[in-house]
Amino acid sequence: DALNKYFNNEFLEAIQDFREVIEREPTGTYADNAQYWIGECFYSLEDFESAISEFTKVFSFPENNKSDHARFKIAISYQQLGRYMKARENMNQFILDYPESELVTQAHDFLEGNRRK
C-alpha cells in the first residue's frame, strides 16, 4: 500500500505507511526498503535535507539491499542543495563502496558532469 501511495504522489501518506512497516517489524525483511522509500518520498517532496537524513538511516539496517541506492541518492540530494563538493565526495564514496552496483555508470556520468562545479 505504501509503495502504491508513493507512485500515486501521495508522499506524506506513504511516509506514514513506510514508518508503520518499520515500527511493526524493525528487523523484518522490508524494514530497510521502507526506510529507503521514506528517503525517496522526501526527495520527491524536494525536502533534500530530510531526504539525506532518511537515506542515511538505511545504513543502520545490518542486512539490507538498498545501501548503494541510498548512497547514490544522498549524493544527488547534496547536488540539489547546491553542495557540490559534498555531492562529489558522496558519489566517489559510492563508487568505492559499491563498484558492482547497477548505478556505477550513472555515478561516473554524474562526476563527469559535475567537474565544472
Describe the overall structure.
By secondary structure, the chain is mostly helical. 70% of the residues lie in helices and 0% in strands. The chain is globular. The protein starts with a helix and ends with a helix.
Brief overview, please?
The protein is mainly alpha-helical and 117 residues long.
The biggest sheet, with number of strands, parallel, antiparallel or mixed sense and barrel status, is: none
What proportion strand?
under 5%
- Summarize model confidence as the mean pLDDT: 95
Order of helices and strands: HHHHHHH
Distance between the termini: 40 Å
Task: Output the structural class.
Answer: mainly alpha
Using only CA atoms, what is the Rg? 14 Å
Oligomer: single chain
| Molecular shape | globular
Low-confidence stretches: none
Q: How many helical stretches?
A: 7
Name the features:
globular, 117 residues, mainly alpha, 7 helices
What is the topological layout?
Layout (H helix, E strand, L loop, with lengths): L1 H6 L3 H14 L6 H14 L3 H10 L9 H14 L3 H14 L6 H10 L4
